[in-house]
Structure formats: C-alpha cells, structure tokens
Fold each of these.
Amino acid sequence: MSRAKEIHKTVKKNSIPGQTGINEKIWLALILIFITLIYSNSFHNGILNFDDIEYFTLYPEVLKLNWSNLMLYFSKHYVLMYQPLPVLTFAMNNAISGLNTFPMHIINLLFHMGNVCLLYRFIYLLRENKSEALLVAFLFGIHPMNVEAVSWISARSSGMYVFFFLIGINYYLMYLKQQFPVKYLLLAGIFFLLSLFSKAQAVTFPLVLVMLDYFYERKLLSKRVILEKLPFLILSIVFGIVALADKGTQQNLTNGMMINYSYFDMLFLVTWSFSFYVIKFIFPVNLCSVYVYPLKVNEMLPIEYYFSAALILGLIYLIYRNKRHRWLVFGVGFFIAVISINIQLIPSRLFIVTDRYGYLPYVGIFIMAIFMVDHWKKMNSMSFRKYSIWLWGGLTIYCIIFSIEVIGRNRAWANDLTLMDDIISKNPEVPYLYRAYGIRGLYKVNNGNPIDGINDFTKAIEIFPSDGKTYMNRAIAYSRMNNNAAAIADLNESAKRSPEQPQIFSYRAILIYQMGNKEQAWKDCNRCLELDAKFVDCYITRGTVAFDRLDYNQSISDFTKAIELQPTSSVPYKNRGQVYIQMNKNYEACKDFQKAAEMGNSDAIQLQQIHCN
C-alpha cells in the first residue's frame, strides 16, 4: 500500500491535519509574539542605499499608485528582477504612509510570521506531530540566517515568494493525502503563480512536488504524475525566460569577475557554497550582509574551500548509506532542489552566497533534523531517554543564542553606516568592497561629515579605480567643503570613466558655472541632455546660463520644460518668474512667484513682495 493511501485512511478516520486545536493555537501565538519581540528593534531601520532607495528613486511609478502604473509593475523589471507583487506592495506602502519605514518593516515581518504558520502546517501535514511542527516553526522563526529576508526592506520578495510557495505545497499535500481532489491541485497552481509573480526563485516549485511524490511512493514516470507536473513545468520555463529577458539582468549575470578562477577553482566554489548553507544552519555566527568571492593567494583558494569538497562527499556517502529512509532523502532533495537555483555554477556575480538564499531551502534541513532525531528515538529509545535532557538543554541554549543573534543582525541593517561597517569588517579587501566604501562615504557626507566621506571615497578609488561614480561622489563631498577645484578635477576623471552618465555633466555644469565658465557649463548641459532628455537639473542649469546670456526665450523654454518634468519643484517656477520680470511680463512673473511661494520657496516669497504688491 502506498504512503498516500495509508495517510488517506488516517484522514478518513480523523480530522484533516492542519485543523489545530486550542493548545497549538496558543503555542503558535506565543511563538509569533516572541518573534515580534526579537524583531522589534528593526522596525525603525531606515531605507538603505543598498537597493531600497532605488525602488523609490529610479521608478517614479512606485510613488504613484494607479491603474496605469499597476500595468507597469507587471510589465517591467525592478532592480534587475521581475517581481511585480512586491513592487505593488511598495507602491501601496508609499500610497498609505509615504516613505515611513515602520509600515514597510511591519509588512516584511507579517510575511515572515505567515511563513512560520505555514511551515507549522506543512510539517504537521507531513508528520502529524504537533510538537515537531511547533518546534520547527519556532526555530525557523528565530533562525539568524533568516534576518536578511525580514529586516532588509528590499528582501520582501523573498518573504513573499516563500509565503505563496508554502501555501502551494500545502495544497499539494492535501491533494496527495485526500486521494487527488482536483481543486487542491488547481489551488496549488494558483499560489505557485503568485509565488512566481513575487520572485523568480519560485521556479523550483515543480521539483519540490516531485520530491513529495517520491516521499509518498508515487510512480514518478506514470502518465498521471507527468501530466500533473506539466503545467507547473511550463510556468517555470515561461517565468524563467521572463526573469532573464531584461538586458540589465543579463549583464548582471554575465559580468566578468574581478578575480580570475580556473575550472578547478569553480568546483570548490560550488562545494563551498553548498557547505556554507549547511554549516550556517548549525552555526549561524559571523553572519554578514555580503560574502564576497575569495581572494587567491599563490594561486590557491582559502583552505576551507578545499575542505568543503570533503564535507559534501561525506554527506553524499551518508545519504547513500541511508537511502532506504525516505525522510532523509526527501529532506536532502528539498534542500538541494530549492537552493540549486542560487548556487553560482559559473562565477558571474560579485558575491558568492547570501543569507536570504537559505530562507526556504532550510525547510529541507529541518526535515532531515526531524528524521535523525526520530530515527534515534525509534532505534534506541533508552539512549534517547537518557540523553533527551541534554538534547532539550542544547536546544534551549541554541534558542537563546539565535534570539540574541537576530537582535544583533537587526542592528546591522539599521542604516547605511552600520550595514557597510558590517560588510567592510567581515570581508577581505577585494575590489567589490569599493561599493561598500562608496555607500558609507555618501552616508557620512549626507550626515555632515564630508572629510570622513572623502576618506571612504578615496579608499574606494584605491581598491577599484575604474568606477566613475565614486569620483563623482567624492566631487560632491569636495563641493560641500567649497573646494570646487578638487571637485571639478574629480568630475573630469568621472567623465572619462563613465562618459554615459548624465549626472556627471550636470554636477560639473553647476560647479563650472559657479566658477564663471559659462560656455563650458552650456556644453555640459547640452551633453547631459543628449544622454537623458528628461534630466531636470540640466534644464534648470541651462536655463540659468541662457538667462545670463540674455537669451530669455531659451531660458523660458528650459524652465518650462523643467516644470513639465517636475511640477513639484519650486526652483524652475521661481527662476522663470525672474526671467519674466526682465521681459516686463509682471503678470506671468507673479503667477510663477505665487506658485513657488506656495511650495515654500523663501526667495519666491521675497520676490513676490518686491514685484507683486
């Protein structure tokens, strides 16, 4: 008799698994309260210059929720990913509470707590053991490796795709346990689709369904099983193609590494990646927001990369020896199936592993852990009873350590300074770290410390001198210190390295204009607008230069274009009003001064008092 039929008898006899009584509901509530407490110090963490800010600055439609923009969310990539549902939630966050981060973090936490409840249900459906399900749900909820998926605003896509993924596989389990009602298969498909709309990593869903079929001893090559999986496989292929269709995503995946690796090295990079997630599951210490690719010394990787191959081979041998135990194979298969999409088989990105990638795959390791403890209990009950007090004591210590580590990791994600300090202090000095120094430098400059900001930019240039943006940022810092000569020198370097970046020419035009070189400022504005015809600051600067050249018609045209592109900015209204004054068009001037004054522009208020009484 198949396992599905055995379970079916139990279901007929008893209530459907997942319909919990009052006791487990109370325990689940206590777990969720505890999770809320240990994550509460993340609620006021800021919007980071680490993907977060890009959602609200690079994509203006996120700041204006309407039906036409809703179509955009589902038709384009955001921050190199196809993730329409998370982007929709960001737009909803902004529509309700602006850029207040408290609601953003609450939403992330709610998805995490939802995943805790769904994991409880999944384990209970598998094991029909409430104690095991509650323990796994609790450990998942407080595991430090999961902090990144919760405390980082941009990682909402991870929590969301796992939420719908778990609902989908729960329905598929009900489909198996209740002898194949089609409605559960359809529901599994619907939530799989929602998971795909949240993050491309959901494409592994059909593999998990196959692992469940294996666990319940179904004939994997039977016509029925294959036909069941076909729609899921087609959806995975379609969304995989969509995820890779974006040119920026393709470039991100194919960018050459800053460190050269041989094929031999790549083998150990892969084995280390698998080992990393296994080891961090057991010992989640020294966690970091970014783990860079390792430096090679004398053509050798760090020694732990070579040892990782032995660990993987040992695990493979252990599984082979115990392949008759379906629990173990199912847990391993779940882990490998879900983590495989995130293993860099070819070094093509700037970090090798990341904490949030273990969020869903760890379900497989939890299943393995349950099996091993249960197997020990069944094979040697006296030994289990003898050492159970040590087992529970160890788990208690683990929970305390996990909780403290979660609170600490929340602090690391507090702002750009704490996050970049975390990255810089825990990684070797590889070229990738220029980005961390650059972000930290910007944070310091924007918080009134331009000197330390310049030091960070200088360090970033030292370790990776090819990035033009770093020179531009250092130029901004120099300009804050009124050192325009140094700022222009950096902008000249920036223009050489990144000649397609319009903001470089915009900044340089402003500084050169302030130093009296109006002709070069005019040329820089024109170059800026050649690169981006919607760059508002360049229209404002060019309009100002045109005013000085007494070309009032051009000046009016530029300020009007700036207003069209950014009607919420008071500066072009005020500037256009000044041009109208010179053209003796006081009525038009006063209308512009009035508009700028309503926006709080103090210069416009004074001009209104002078010219419009």
Amino acid sequence: MPAPALRSTLDAFFDAYYRRRPVNATFIGVHGGDGRLPDHSEEGLAASQAEMEDLRRRFRGLPKESASPVEALDRDLAEGFLEIELWERRAPHGPRGNPCVWTGEAVFGVIALLLRPFAPLEERVDAAVARLAAIPAFLEQGRVQVRSAPAAWIERAARECTAAAALFGRGIETFIADEDVTAHGVDPGRLRAAAAGAGAAFARFRDHLMTEIRPGGEAAYACGEAALELLMRCGHGVTLRASEVRRLAEARAEAAEAALRERAAEAGFADWRAALASLGAHHPTAARYYARYQEVWDAARRAVEEHRLVTWPDYPIRFVPRPRWTREAAPSLYFLAYRAPAAFDRVPVVDYLVAPVEPEMPVDEQARLLRAANDAAIALNHVIHHAGLGHHVQNWWAYRAPSRIGRIAAVDCASRIAMFCGGTMAEGWACYAVDLMEEIGFLSPLQRVAQAHTRLRIALRAAADVALHTGAWTLEQAADAYASRGGMDAGAARGEALKNSLHPGTAMMYLLGVDRIHALRREEAARAGRAFDLRAFHDRLLACGSIPVARAADLLAAGS
C-alpha cells in the first residue's frame, strides 16, 4: 500500500491529467470528459500550468525514504512528466506555437469516440456531437495562440484541416449509412449538423494557417540541446548527453549498413537497395490479402510458444479493412492501423485496421496496395512489431502493471502516446520482438534484409533527432540523410524528418529502448548463468509496464 501522502498526490496528479486532457482520457478509457476538448485558451493554459507547478511542489515535498520501488518510480515519472509538460507549455512545440496540436486534438477527439465500440453507439455519438460542437471555439483558441510556426508544420496542419473537412462531410455521411445509426436511436440530422459546423471551423482554421501565420525560419524546428536533454532525462530516464546519443546512433548505423550488405548477399543480391526493391514482388493475392495477416500471426504465435520466448496472453485481435468512413481522410492524418487499446476499456476483440484492398478498386490501385503490403511488411511491421509479440503483447502486460503510470503511458492518443516516459519500453520492445523472431529463424532471407534496413532506419532516426534539435542539421539535411543513406523515397524521407521536428526526443525512443533491452538481457543472463530463463526474463520485463527501460532495471533488481 502506498504511503498516504504519496497516494493522495498521485490521485491528484491523475485527476488533473484526465481533466486537462480529455481526448487522451478517451483513448485511455477514462470517459468522464468524452464530450469535451482541452482548454488551450490563455486562461486555460495558465490554470493548467499553475496546477502542474503545485503538483510538482507536492511531489518534491514528499519523504523519499518510505517509498517502495514502484512508488518511487511513479513519483519520479510523474515529476518528470510535469517537467516536460511545463517546458512544452512554454515552447513553440506545444499549443502556443504548433498548429498540429490543435488539428490533431480536434479531429481525433471525435475519431476516438466513433472508431472503437467501448460503449453503445448512441452514447458515443452523443459525446461526439458535443465534441464536434466544441471544435469551432477550440480552433478559435488556436487562431489566437498560433501566430508563427515553421512552414512544414503549417503545411501539415493545413492538410489535416482538409482531411477533417472530408471526414466531417462525406465521412460522416458514410458513417451514418454504414452504422445504420437510426436503428440505434441516433438522430442523423443532429450528427450531420454538428459535423458540418466542425467542418466549417476547420476550413476557417486552414485559411488562418495559409494567410495569417508567419512562417518561421529553419531554427524554429529545433528545440535546443538543453530541452532535448531535459526530455531524455525526465522522459527516457537516461543521463546521456545528446552528443553521446548521436555517437551511439552513428555506430549502430554503421553496423546496420554492414549487416544490410551481408543479408543482401545471403539473399542473392549484390546491392541491398535492389533487395529491398524486390520485396514488392512477394505479396499475397487480392483474394488472400486479409487472411494472410492472420496466417502470419498464427505462425508467429506458434513459434514464440515453441521457443518459450514469452507468455503470450489470450488477447484476441482481428485484421479488418479500415472503415469506409475514415478512408478518404486517413492518409493525411495520424491514423494508425494498430492503435494501442484503451487501458481501461475491455473490448472483446481488438481491430487492426489494414489498408483496404477491395474488388471494386481499379486493378492498378489494388496492385500498388499489394506491393506495399508485401510479405516482409506484413510479417515484420504489421504482425510482429504491432499486432503480435511487439506492441499488442506488451500492451496486455502493461495494463496489468503495478505502476499506475506504466499502465497508461504508451496508449496512443491524438498525435503521440499518453506520456513521453512510455516510449522506450513500447517502441524498444516492439523492435526487440522482431530481433527475437530473427534469432529463432522465423524470418525469410528477404525479411532479414528488411529487418537490417529497419535497424538502419532506427539508428538514423536517433541521429536525426539529435542533429535536428541541436541545430546541427536543417529539416532538409535530415530528410536528405533518410533518402541518401536510408534508401527512402523523397516524400517518405521528408515526412520522417517532419515527424522528428514536431516531437523532439521521440525518434530516439526506438534505439534507446531496444539497445537497453538487449543490454538488460545480457546482464541478467550473466548474473543468472545456467539458471537464466529467457521467457521468465521477458515476462518480468513486460510486467514492469510502459516505463523507461532504463528504470526497469531498478524494478528487476528489486524483484518487483
């Protein structure tokens, strides 16, 4: 049982978190604010800042010697979260300067309610109507707050506005038809009217973005070395300097490039780019497309259990096409095929929303989608990294963790996970999961090439994260590194660099997480000797929840 003062302070922390972040709360499965959007007015931001400063003082005033390892962890993670949020409230990367904060919260506040059947349809639509009605005032707050932003952020937010207008027009009409809302007691006219008002507000916000916001210079993309190291220290739990992370990333990139050449040669290719280009030829037929995901999932689970890699829970998932009402807007939004299930909602089956390949599509469009959903993409990315041993299994364990923060930190929200501190475990484990499947021989020769390429991209992400946010690289230089060294096409390379700029410290999560998990495994194996049990180690690690991998070592050592 936590010490009373610590428990009451944590209670106050979570109360403030859910109250101030109602869209995050919906995604997490806390539904008291489902009809609201955040208050990012000047008064709202000031009140939020004052509340966070008060919580920080309360945490700092608590006695530390009486806390258990899990209690100490939650106290430290909560303090770190507050430090990051207080920085972001002042920084251009937060609501005072980032237009994507506004578009993301507004559009996904509604999507969060309509996409998952956590409650009867009529209840979810009622909340969606309330949020749709709140969007005009919310985006008006954004017009007041955001007066200058980097050009690429403006462009992205404008695309999201266009997507939102389509979603709340043609998309809502499709939703009304496909969900047969009248049969559930829903008034379609009420939903249409609220959606139309929200769509008009997005159109006005887009005009504001394109005509009234002053584009910032290249320096505006960078958060600065001090801020980046604050994020690393308070979020990832590491004491490394930014320069040390960049050196680590460069070393890992060189190793990945060597492995790429080796794996390509093993697969019969003289050049790794040619090997990757050949992947598109290995894909399921249109008739077998949806079934192929489940076939690979079943085979992966059998292999995990045969090799005793981890205790795989009974956590059903099904691969279904993206709902029709989302399809026009999804490519321009942070719309994930696998969105971490809500920690506190218990839906019987989790839907994995794959890109639709339908008979009525033009043949060339079907062919393009099938090439993208090749065998390597389905196995490595969709099934292992996301829907199976990676995120899906890790989420099940996290939602039962003793750490209250570890239960919710890695839930996907409007534009990122619920708490920055969950990233190294969530992304580190998902990357490590593919490493494990390669270890046991599950991957084909071409899939091993793709996995070596993924390791290169992970390293380049961390290098770009540091170089961009310390001012060593411009956005264009980061994109060029992804294209020239990572083999990405120009559009994907620029998109990756743009994500780096929007969310400092995020791209390094993958490398820091997977690197530390491998190190923990080596340390535990050396300590236990012949008694080391890989499945037991993985189960204990996952039981820590979505916490910084750097902090998991403390819990493992304490036997928690």
Amino acid sequence: MSIIKRLFRKVSPSTINEAPVLEGLQKILARNHPVDHKVNAYSKILVYTFEPLGLYAWRESIIARALQLRGGKVSIFQCDIPLAANDMDNQVAGSFFADNLEKSIAFYSDCGFDVLLLSEYLTNEIKADLKYKAEHLPLENLKSLEYRDINVGLYALNSTVRHFLMPQPEFENELFVAKFREYVYSCLLITEGTYQLLLKSRPDKVFTSHGIYISWSPVFYLCRKLNIPVDVYGGSYRANTLRVYRNEPAAPFPLALWPKYKDVHLGVKENEILDKYIPGRKDNRNDSIKLFSDERSSSDVFDFIRNEKAKGHVVFCLFTNIAWDGFMFKEKTVFRDMFEWITKNIQYFSNHGSYSLIIKAHPAENARETNTPEKYRVSSIIPEQLPSNIYFCKPDENVKPFDLYPMIDVGLIHISTVAIEMALEDIPVLTSGANGHYSNKGFTIDPQTEDEYFEYVEKLGKRELSFTPDKEAARRYMYFRFFKEAIPFEPLSLNGWAVKSLNINSCSDLLPGKFKGLDTICEGILNDGEYSYDWTIHE
C-alpha cells in the first residue's frame, strides 16, 4: 500500500475522497529531479508544518519542493509529540497521531526533505519542569505567563477560547481551566523545542501558517525575537487563493501591503474584474466558503422590513459574527465583546420604538466546520419576547445579505466583511468600534466610545446624520483584499477546504514559469519578492 493510501486510511469523512486525487503526490515530489542551484537571498528555509495530515501538509510539501527546485535548502519541522492543541483536539488526526506521524515523516523524507522533530530538542527534565509550571502555577500567573520572552499564556488563552467556540474565557468553568492548563503545557513545549531548534539550525527564513494559536504562535514570535524572517500564509476569501504576509501573523488582518496600494486608483481592468466578482458574493460561488444554500429563503424578515418602512421607521440591520471569531479583537473593541454589543443594542432599540432593528445571526454558526454550541450562539442572548420593532433572523433562515441591502437603511457591524459590500450599495455602516480591518478607511463610521456609538445610532435613526460611504475607497480596499493580495495556488484545486484535483503531473510542473501564483510565493520566500498578484495580466 502506498504512503498516500496509508496516510488516508483512517482520515475523516471530509478528507477521505482526497486519497485517489493525491495518489501520485509522493512520486511527483521525488528527489531525483534536476535542481537549479542559483543563489537566492535566503538559502536555508525551514518549513514549519504542524499537522501530520490535511490541507496544510499538502500545500506545504508542494511549496517546499518548489523551493528546492529553485535552489533552496529546505528542512521540514514536524511536531512528533501528541499534544493538546486545536489541530489535535478538533480533528480526527489527534486520535491516531502516532500511527500517521510515522507515515508523515516517511512521506517528507521520501520527498527529499531534512525532517527536524520537536522531540529532539526536549529533554525529559525540561518536559517535567514545564509540566509542573502548567499544572501548579496560580491561574492568574498563567494568564500572562511569558516564557523565552513570548506570551505563551495569551496564545494558550486564544486557543482555549477557540477550542470551546466561546466568546470569552470562562475561568469559573473547570473544564475551561483544565483545557487552558493543557494548552499552556503544549505551548511551553512547542516554545522551548522551537527555541532550541532555531538556535541550532539558524535558518535564513521560516515559512509557516497562521501565526496564531499555540500551533503556530510560538514559532512566529520566536522568529521575531531572534530576528529570523518569517513568512506566514493563510487561505484567502476567494477559492484556490492564498495570502502570504512577511513578519506579520495572518490574523486578525495584518496591514501587509495596504499602505502601498491604498492610494492607487483602480484601472479599467481592475474595475471590470471587481464588477464581475461582486455579484458572486451573493451566493459565495467564487469564494472559499459557501454559506448559503440555493433554496429560496422562507424568512419573515422581508415582511418585517416592509411593515416597519410603512411606519416611516429607519431600519437598521445588525450583522453578527461567530462568537469566538472576534475574541482576538478584545483589546481594541469599544464593547467587551460581540455579545455585549448585541445586548446593548437590543436594550437601546427596545427603548426607542421609533426606529427598527434586524439582528442577523451569522450563517456559519451551524455550519459543519464551526458548529458553534447552542449556548455560544447569538440566539442564546436573544429574549424570548422581542418588541415589535426588533426582528431576530436565525442562521437557518438562509437570508442572503445581498437580498437585504436594497431594503435596509443602516448597517451595524462588528468585524464582518459585509461592511465593504454595504458601502458599495451606498448604505451607511456604523461599526461597533472593534477596529476591524476595514475601519477608518473612509467608508465606515467608527466610534471611539460606547456613548459615541449610540449618539450615532440616534442621529441615524432620526435622519439627522448624513453619511455617504466613499465608494471608491471601498472598491480599492475590496480589490486589494480579495484580489491584489490573493495569490492563486494552482497545483491544487479545492472544493471548500477539500482537495478536488491535483494539477501537477511531474516535478517539472513546479519549476518557474508553469504556475505564476506558485512562482510569486516562491520568489517571496527566497528573495523577498512582493506577495501580490496582478490579475489583470493572468486572469
């Protein structure tokens, strides 16, 4: 049985169909192909891959082989210790870690990579000492625990919130505290092992994913402390595209190249590309994640809007996010969290019946990939009896935002990208003050305090404030985030996050000139090339 088949022998239903697609990957990435020994700005590249299975591994192994073919001396860093971590806890890989790790290492070795293992940089004495810290330090100390000069307590906290899919830490919850301590221990191990590895191997650059949560935060921040360049990639909004950032984590939305392009006006071709793409946002047909079914909505929200409009009311629509997704904005937001923002809006509109509010739950709350627990869904804070001027639109009502835009007067958002879409529809957008990635760019109203937020609500509700979004700025920003920084990853085609097809037949397909997106990524890693893509040339 081939390594690819064995790798997928026990995988989850979401990835089991990838096995035949990737059957030939090991052979394609075989080491007996000619290598260009040209001199690059960065020679020794460490590719940090955390998961033994999954889309990360396939992307990273392809990129690593492409770097080799361009003269890079590539090593693969592999976590070979069963750890409490989001990737291990939330995916099937965790239950058969040891079995697949051996095959994962064999796969990378057979492809010609030097494989560096976390366990090689951790002694039993160190592991025992770190375990004692995680289990016995007072909880207050753990929350802000620093180790090797990086904030492992914060990374563990972010990861624990993500594990339970909750909006805020629950330190009174014994299960939360137990998992938090587990994550602190994992983060300490990853931090110490990575620190020793970086000191001994001294790569010229590290290439990794995310830069957030305990799986990736330690390597990112250690690289920054040790002045080792680190390039971080993540999935982009549009299908089959990646974003790559230099010395910035992939969340919550890095600045990246925006300062360079923020004043660059779109040309005819850029506007044509954007005009072609925007209608597809309605059903996400060109995006990485499809949030709505093709069925017609059976919601009563449209009747509600018509009735409120007939009364002469200004209709506000509040668009929520998934509760846990906004936790990393906790230090910047005007409100404590999204739930407080929603609750205070309900209170305000309950006392101001002369204008109306729709609260639209995010459709991903009950999506298979996120499946937010009931107690952390927006519905958990919605009163059973709402006043007649407030309507709660549930996530399963299949109401597409684009169907609401022509009917509503004001958009209220936390960190949702619908802010850009509403600005393009000339709808005033009031943010919660969370400083989302699109805030303070000319097409949203951004309050600095809670009082200021509700002053804006009142003025908008009484039609005393006239705000016209800067549509040109919104279009420039949308083009930047959805196209300019979105680099196609041509070797794989995806259906959502599952591999649909492998688009390479031999290792020569990974050489320069075949795939412009792959070329952009490799040139960025090896020579600090710009992580941007010109869709007007290559579309």
Amino acid sequence: MKPGLLNPISALLRRRHLRRLLVLRRAWQEVIDGPDPDAASRVASELSLHRVPVPRWLLLLSGLPRELDGAVEITLRQAFLTQLYSHLLPGLLLLVTDRAVALPIPAAWHAPLLAHGFPLRTRGSAWLCGGMAVTGLARGMRQIMRTLISASRGRLWAAPGAPYDVAVELPASFLRGTVHNADYNFSDWLQRRAPEGGLWLHSNRRVPEKGRKIAESPLPDFPDLSARAAFGFSALRLTVGAMVGLLFARPEGAIILPETVMLAHARAVGVDRLARNYYFENSRWFSRPLFTRWAAGAAGSRAVLAFYSTNTDECLRLAPSDRMPCFTPGYQSMDWDRYLVWDDHQADLLSAWGHERLRACVVGPVPLTDSTADLPHIPQRSVAVFDVAPLRPAGLAAIGLVSEYYRDSIAAAFLDDLREQSRHAGITLVLKQKRERKSSAPPLYEAALRRMQNAPHAIIVDPQISAARVVAACAATVSMPFSSPSLIAAREGKPAIFYDPTGRLIASSRQAHGLNLIQGTDALGHWLQGTVSAGMAAPSGENE
C-alpha cells in the first residue's frame, strides 16, 4: 500500500474509534444512572457459567483423550473470558442500553443474550468469533515453532530429580529483586515455600532486573528425541484438527490451540517430570491452562491461585437493593485445585462463588512486589493511607466497568477528610498509591491529591514500594474500602480501619474481613484522636 493512502485510512480508523468511545461513554452514563449499575457484569457472569459444547468429532480429530472433554469445554469458556475488558463488558454495556452490537462470543452464548431481549448482531458476532479463531490458530502454530526451536537450541530447562514448583506467567514487576525482605515480594515469597527441587520463575515479559533466572517455558525439556517427535506429531494433528474445524464453521479447536499445544508438550514430557505445584497470581483468575488440568489427574500436580489482594468481593453499594449480589465475571467459573487466601473471610468468599471451601488454604497476606527504593524518614506519630485511585468515566466506559463507589468525588473526599482530621489530631499521613499513574485522573481527585501533596503533615511515598513496608513503618493504617493493606496492619497488631467518607456504604463483615468500617468525618476524627490519646507505639522497621 502506498504511504499516501495510510493517512486517510488512519484518520478513518481514529474517527470510528472516537465515535465508539462516545457511544460507550453515553451508555456507561445511562447504566450508572439507572436502577441496575451491575447489569453488564451480571450478564457477563451468567455467560461465564453457560456451557459451550465442543463436538466430539473435533476432539477425536485433534487426538484429545475422552477424559479431557470437560476440561476442554471449560478451557474454551475461559478463553472467551480473556476478552472481558477489551470487548465483552464494553459490548454488554451497549446491549443493556438497547444498542445493537456484535461480540466475539460463541454461538452457544447467542441464545441467552437474545432471550434477554438484547439486540445482539449474531452474524457479526460469528465473524468476530472466527477472527478470534484465526488469531488462536496463529498463536498456536507460533507456540509449536517456539517449543521446537527452544528444545533444539537447549533453551528449555531439564526437570530436576526432585519435586519442584513453577510460578507461571509472572508479570515483570513481580520479578524485581528487593534488598529489604523476601516477604515483600511475590516470587521471593514463593521461593521460601518451594520443595527440594526449587522454584522455577516463568514470564512472557522481559525482566527489568538482573540476577534472576527465568524459564522460557513452564514445562521442562523433552527427555529424548522420541518424546520431541511425539510432541511434533501431536502438534501437527492438533493444527490439522483446528483447520478442519474452521472449514466446518467450528472454531473451538483453533481458539484453544495454544492451550492444546501446551497440553501436548506436557504429555510428551511425561508425568514424572512435571512440577508439584503450578502457581498463578490472581490477575488471571479466569484462565487456567489446560495442561494443568491433565497434570492434576495424571501426575497429581496442583494448579494454585494465590490471591495477592482481598478486594474481590461483590460490588459495593451505597443504598439497599433487592438485586442479587454481583461478582466480577469469571470468579464463579474458576476451577483451580487450590487457593491461597489471606483469612477465613476470603475462604468464605470462595464458598459464595460456589467453590469448595476445602480448596482454600489460609496463609495470611500474600505479597505483591517491592522496589529497592528506601522509605523517607517517617515520624513516630504517623498513619499509613491507602486509597483507590479512580479512572476517568471515559476510561471506565472503554473497559466496561461501572462502579457505584469508586468515583472521583468519593476518592477526593477520602483524601480531604483524612488530611483535615489528621491535621487536627497532630498526625503525619503517609500516602502510598497502588501504582504509578501514567495518565491524569479525574479533576476532583487530582485536586485532592495536590492538596495532600502540599500539606506539611503529609508524606507521599514511591508507589513501587511494598505496602507491607509502609505499614511496618507507621503506627496505624487507614484504607479505602476494602483495600488489603489494613489487613496487613491488623495482622501485625496495629490499629487498622477502612474509612468511608460517604457514610452510606453498605457492607458485610465478610467484605470488611472483620475490621471496623469508620463512616463520616466525625467518626474518623474520634478514631484518630483516640489513637493519639492512647499513645502511638514506636513503629518497627527501617525508620525506628
């Protein structure tokens, strides 16, 4: 294509994108002002539990064993959930506001949406699902080539002679080293739990810090050439099966080809070379790899989901409602072998999602990540503050999220109330935001943040520093409902609360994990004054 033709095409695409964003923004406002702000999430949750049948002939053609029929079905369902924030929730926002739209979903999910009376464009949805299948086919073929090339070049790790664990698909930030304490970093924390054979760290991202060996694959090298050949034959059969399926308008095999290729790798390696545990962090809660399901039955391996946060309960509400509680889509359709949770309240949440509570293992706070940066000097009379930075409405609409509570006005009031009440109580605030912001937040919140930054009794710390390190350096902790750091402080025996500036938040003890929810400025002032009058103990850690 001539370069001169690119400018008009790019301009056209930009205009289409902007028009879609404007339509999404209007739909988002209609939903948030309507009687059911959770409408899109509720429909997505219903879809995630609606089975997607896979034809038996396609499984036979692909060479998949019959005992994996159920595992293949749920893997396929979870594959569609990977489109949750990019396509599914934004599209459902449009549907629940009676705007016609096509979604990349299987034909089995058309009927439930049409039964709701939503104007789903079924033909367009079929085309989008086909496009998803072509992408899956390409990714699967790339996975085959990568595996064979890595094996031939000796880049795959040999399985150790003793039991070992694998941390799978870790984000790069989880692999940064820390000079402070291994309990502040997810990968180091897992390392301390590893068996005799050690812990493999696997990531698909380039690691920004040196000093860590990263496995190219969560699965080990083939023991010999015959095993490598067996993988190649199975991968070829899977690819042919996926292509034949596409010819007969059955995209299932192509969509999950990357997963079935990994399964072929695991089966070729052999059960005696697989890991004891495969660990995953909960940012990918809706997507369990297919090979771990086979490994669980064949080798006794376990796929373990570790929750590094506790703010995963039902949507927060500011008024009583007759509507059923709505959970984030995908949590109810999870099927991990074990869950590492913070406390009994989070274990109870698993039961509310419909999972066996016996699969939950209470381990206390699970660390996230840390940086090598030092904390600034923190006075003895200090309170750690953790807010939830809001997104602009357009940003929320683009990913289909509608929240009654996490709005800029409430987040701004949270910071302003703490700033004022701590000034009266003679307390220093130490604010740590969840992550480094790459773009500006809504104006109300930005203004409140500037007021906090300019306050003489406030300290703003590097967002990359571990929340646990900040909590350890302060005498008490206040979090916006229901952010996890207050649980870390309570576990250390320090005063810890959640603060609701609206005074109207409705929450259960399970959501608050048994901690106090302070509502309104008067109650906040009394709590701060009471903490001061009782005498703040000298903080432990690097600022003693």
